Amino acid sequence: MPQRTATIASTVGLHARPATLFTQKVSEAGIPVSVGKKEGKAVNAASILAVMALGAKYGEEVILIADGEGADAVLDELVAFLETDHDTKK
Amino acid sequence: MTTVKGLGVSGGSAVGIVALVAQPSPLPDESVSHDPIGDLSRVNDALEAVATRFDTTAAALSGEASEMIAAAAAIARDPGLLDAVEQNLEHLGAAHALHAAVQGYAAQFTELGGYFAERVTDLLDVGARAEALLLGRPMPGIPELTEPSIVIAHDLAPADTATMDPALVVGIVTEAGGRTSHTAILASQRGIPAIVQAKGALTLTDGLRAGIDGDSGELVIDPDDTYLAAKAEKQRTRERILTLTGPGKTSDGHPVMLLANIGNVADAELAAVADVEGVGLFRTEFLHLTASTAPSVAEQAAEYVRVLAPFGGRPVTVRTLDAGADKPLAFADLGPEPNPALGRRGLRLMLEREDLLDAQLAALTQAAAETGALVKVMAPMVATMQEAAWFTSRAHAAGLPLAGVMIEVPAAALRAQQVMQVSDFASLGTNDLAQYTMAADRMVGELSSLLDPWQPAVLDMVAAACEGGRVTGKPVGVCGESAGDPLMALVLTGLGVSSLSMSMQRVPMVRWSLSHHTAEDCMRFAELARRANSAETGLEAVRSAASKEITDLL
Fold first, then answer.
1. Pick from B287, B266, B16, B54: which is nearest to B163 by CA?
2. What value, to the nearest 5°, has the Cα angle with vertex B306 and ends B302 and B311?
3. How close are the terminal C-alpha atoms of chain A, in Å?
4. Which residues contact B479 (CB under 8 A, 6 or more apart)?
5. What pLDDT score was predicted for residue B468?
6. Nearest chain B Cα to A34, which residue?
7. How far is A55 from chain B (nearest CA, A)?
8. Residue A86 catalytic?
9. Is B375 within 8 Å of B308 (Cβ atoms)?
10. Closest partner residue to A44 among B75, B80, B105, by Cβ?
11. Is any Cβ of chain A less than 8 angstroms from the Cβ of B226?
């Protein structure tokens, strides 16, 4: 299965607004995506509860795995999203 | 006629039907799921039903309340919650599997703190509702009301109060809570009579007729005609009081400004059309507490314009950001502290994060210029003259000519002369001043009696602060809940306080009370209250000396 590593660019980490937007993007993609920290277990990337509970902080790396049609393209888009700071401006 | 006694925290009286908020009862024993797929689908249906109900509620509301409920609906539909349930079904029954999934996330979020911890209430509420559906139990939270009711609960969550229909909720009674708890403040803002610390209230039966008196703190079950007639008379007098208008003054013309406490744009719009002389306390935390990043100067200025504009030329006193410790900010969290009330909060947080204060002052200067409003700024949690001087120079440099301090730390009250030398005005935050004078945590409801503003030691602190104002010739106001107590307002006036800021619903009664007494009466009452050996005897002494026209109403 295709896999990518992304570094969290939002200064508050992957929570609150960035996490909400991220899970929305995953849901729109329509294929199963998981996210996890390097040593930790992977969780459902469409779940705001699970994603926030990861507690991924600014500068931390997370691993994304997707399965299904267009998985590579979906992952590229999600990596680009995570590597952009979504806190700076509304 | 039986009576339940508590602490009256929001005045007025009403009659309604007892509506109990169900207490979560322990889950029944279950065996490990025999049919995990079927059970998962039942849990899913329950969660979806909760989400659908929330959708309907959110659609009927607007603004912040609607967003809060929509966020709760999203939690109910969260796939991660269902994933956890699925795992738990390997060793638990359906209800326990759901319960454990909710508790698991709640524990993680509580540990993460800040923004996450705020979501825990929503999460637990979603879980409790879905569990009730799953078990065929009555829904937790406020039951559906069909007639004017007195809601009785252990305590109320912010989500409960957001959806409360003021036409149907005519009174609120809680067994927990305190004088300055969330419930008390919200009820008082909305003018709903409320009683907290009412032990035994939950043992009452649904559907009984009851009368609530939020001044005396009494809930009377099955009231007789005499009681009802007396309350109706009292209510009529209250309505007569509303006919007295204009600036606050004693019967001999000594002016006491009557101001409103506000916390957001909606409060500002409501207060601006009321008969008040301005705002004595604008709490600015609303912009910051829910934000994940520091709001920009432009964002803040836009909100401040909306708050300031409705008041025209009337003064608006803005308390700069009072966060930290128990009100942590996502973007300026200094970490947990063993004793948040005594920690790096208020101005102490600003000293660490000057950028936050400077941004707020710049935004206020912009908003003041744009609206032409008369803006005064004051710093919370000031303890020393040096802190006061630092804040004043910061505010003046930003272009705000009127900079003051909140006096809520005993050190600032005792050294008010020095503190006020370097400030333009002072405002007494009597809730915190009582907390710090009596060393009694405001969050501990059982300590309510120590936090009574009639405690002579607290009044001595107020007197010390007023003496500082007298010597320096600068005004001292009060913006704590005690300013809205019609008898305490007289005592404060007698001590030398020149403005009283309160929930706007309390203004008419205080105006009425002032208009029935002279400035000399007030000074005499202040003497009586301070000479007393206890809060109770002080209150009693002032009550018997005050005009019967007022005390009959209390």
1. B54
2. 140
3. 35
4. B259, B261, B280, B281, B317, B406, B427, B428, B429, B430, B501, B502
5. 97
6. B80
7. 8
8. no
9. yes
10. B80
11. no
Give the C-alpha separation, A37 to A41, whole Å.
7
User: Which of B293, B299, B333 would best serve as a mutation to test chain A binding (most A beta carbons within 10 A)?
Assistant: B293
Residue B162: what pLDDT? 60
Chain A contacts to B (CB-CB under 8 A): 11-12, 15-18, 43-44, 46-53, 55, 87-90
| CB-CB under 8 Å, B108 with A15 | no
pLDDT, residue B118, reads: 64
pLDDT at position A89 is: 41
Tokens 């009862």 map to which residue? B25
The pLDDT score that the predictor gives to residue A90 is 39
Residue B182 confidence (pLDDT): 61
Active site residue: B182, B254, B396, B516, which one?
Answer: B182
Facing residue for A16 by CB, picked from B75, B123, B292: B292
B174: Cβ–Cβ under 8 A, 6 or more apart, which residues?
B152, B153, B154, B155, B156, B181, B183, B194, B195, B196, B197, B198, B201
Q: Are strands A43-44 and A61-66 parallel, antiparallel or unpaired?
A: unpaired
In terms of phi and psi (left: phi > 0; alpha: psi -120 to 50; beta: otherwise), the region of B473 is left
Residue B216 pLDDT: 86
CB B241 within 8 A of CB B22: no
Nearest Cβ partner for A49 among B75, B115, B296: B75
With 70 as the cut, is the pLDDT of residue A88 above it?
no
Q: Residue B413 corresponds to which tokens in the numbers above?
A: 């009250």
CB contact under 8 A, B292 and A12: yes
**Which percentage of chain A shows pLDDT scores above 90?**
44
CB B542 within 8 A of CB B528: yes
Does B330 sit within 8 Å of A50, measured CB to CB?
no
Q: Is A11 or B196 the better-scoring residue by pLDDT?
A: B196
Is A62 a residue whose pLDDT tops 60?
A: yes
The phi, psi pair for B486, rounded to 5°, reads -60, -30
| Partner-chain contact B74 A48, CB within 8 Å | yes
Q: Do B80 and A50 touch (CB under 8 A)?
A: yes
Catalytic residue among B96, B99, B466, B479: B479
Q: At what angle do helices B36-60 and B114-135 cross, to 10 degrees?
A: 110
ipTM above 0.85, yes or no: no
CA–CA distance, B375 with B371 (Å, rounded to integer):
10
Q: Please state, in angstroms and rounded to a whole number, the distance separating the CA atoms of residues B232 and B12.
A: 11
DSSP per-residue codes, B536-547: HHHHHHHHHHS-
- Structural contact between residues B81 and B50, judged by C-beta atoms closer than 8 angstroms: no
Bridge partner list, B257? B499
Which residue does chain A place closest to B79, by CA atoms? A47
Residues in chain B where the model's pLDDT stays below 70: 62-65, 113-118, 157-159, 161-163, 179-182, 185, 189, 290, 325-327
Query: Residue B114 has what pLDDT?
Result: 62
